[in-house]
Amino acid sequence: ESNNFLTDARVGSNCNAWAYVGGLSGTRSCHGGTSDTYRYCYIQPSNRPTTFNIEFRFCQGVTISDIKIGVPHDGHDAVKGKLQYMNNGVWTDAADGTRLNQKSFWSGWSKTCDGWHINNPQAASSNRWRVYDYETESNQYISGFDMTYQKNAGLLLPTTDIQLQKVGSAVTYPEGLQYPSSSNAQKWNLRKCSGDTAAACLGQGSAWTGTSSAIVSGDVIAWVSKSSGQVYDCAGATCSRQPYPPPSGHWGTPFRIFKVENGRAASAGTPIHLGDSVYFYGMQANLWKPSHIINCGSSHCGGSSGNSIATSTFVVDIYRARPAASPSPPVTMYVKYDGNSAAERAFGFTPFFQNNAESNNFLTDARVGRNCNAWAYVGGLSGTRSCHGGTSDTYRYCYLQPANTPTTFNIEFRFCQAASISDIKIGTPHQGHNARKGKLQYMNSAGNWIDAIDGFSVSQRSFWSRWSHGNTKGWRITQNSASLSSKRWRVYDYETNGN
């Protein structure tokens, strides 16, 4: 059993490959060879001790449109199997299957039985696909499969209604990143210019409207909103909304798009497919400036030389409704300052609270030891963290540092096992110190902090109804993707107004 079998290391130069993945070792006995009337392979017994997948790998991005899977005879009719594709390293649902009379696709089959049919209407493109959790009645058998796919399917076109996605969010007109939905406010056309200079693309309507070829790495494009018909012009740190096609002088509208592979820009001319990761850079004063990279936060998008490819990567894809999940019951952790012990009560989590210097990696194995469920306030000036109010539900606070914020302040969490954080609410004392900043991040397997989702300002009484200062604005981070799982999380660069 494996969730990632056909890796680069395993297939090597044999990039077109497939595998039966799962089943008990040593039990896969087969009968019938290439017979078109009767054949089978035994996978595992009826108690299904492993998850069985049929995994495919291709040398280039493809779209699988149809799969038919056969079984030996009735008594072992197919009952389960879902088509998935790999998107940014995560298996993503494409289409579920249904039972189908096996003689409808294998007319010479000698037995009466129901196989499994998956018809995929989606245009997603990937070089890795699988039929996930295939199952039959009783003992598990498979008699083969017919699979239909198309190379170079799912190419990114200027007319495709796409989302510009980051983890757990999508760019939403006329603002920044919000929770994904089917709204036209989150649909964009990446309209393509036939030229590659300001003179060839600005004030030249036909250079945009007359171009319909597939978008490739290095092309000049504009973000055109499906809901408004306007573009994001990102000449500065906050994008403005401007007309399309871009008039003369609107050099903040055109961007160059590049596919991102292994954290780097792919060479010019590389095809871009739905589901690929990309980044964009813009112009300054009519000339291309590769360091002027476009990125988005919760309230707006903008261009800046302070942005990097690593933190400004988007996935271009169509909207896909998230399947209903069945996670384990959520656990809520409440943290209130305890004035008696100068520590924090964290419902079974060990606090590392006082006088923590700025750190990008605080809750290490060496620090927490056996206290693997732990949290910490990390940053703030050493010796300045004075607290007031104890566990009061009407008013309490801890002072972190002065208004010039000399250190980056994080709230770091560590878990004994991988977990998903879905919602965080952070309170402040009163409206003179309203919250204004804080982004949820998780640590990946390489030890790097990765953006999950940004937060937003919200009335504090919406989550602490008894708070004594009615105009206080706290900070909320919510609707984070449940598919993200890590032992280490943090709220990065939390900040309030004033001190």
Largest sheet features: 11 strands, antiparallel
Unreliable runs: 339-346
Roughly what is the average pLDDT, rounded to an integer?
86
State the shape.
globular
Binned strand content: 35-45%
List the helices and strands and how they pair.
Elements: H1 8-11, E1 17-21, E2 30-31, E3 40-44, E4 53-69, E5 78-87, E6 90-96, E7 98-101, E8 114-119, E9 126-136, E10 140-142, E11 145-151, E12 163-166, E13 169-171, E14 177-178, E15 188-192, H2 198-201, H3 205-209, E16 220-225, E17 231-233, E18 240-242, E19 255-261, E20 264-265, E21 276-284, E22 287-296, E23 301-304, E24 314-317, E25 336-338, E26 343-345, E27 350-352, H4 365-368, E28 374-378, E29 387-388, E30 397-398, E31 410-419, E32 423-426, E33 435-443, E34 449-454, E35 456-459, E36 473-478, E37 486-496
Parallel strand pairs: 27-28
Antiparallel strand pairs: 1-4, 2-3, 3-10, 4-8, 4-9, 4-11, 5-6, 5-9, 7-8, 12-13, 12-24, 13-14, 15-16, 16-19, 17-18, 19-20, 19-21, 21-22, 21-24, 22-23, 25-26, 28-31, 29-30, 31-37, 32-36, 33-34, 33-37, 35-36
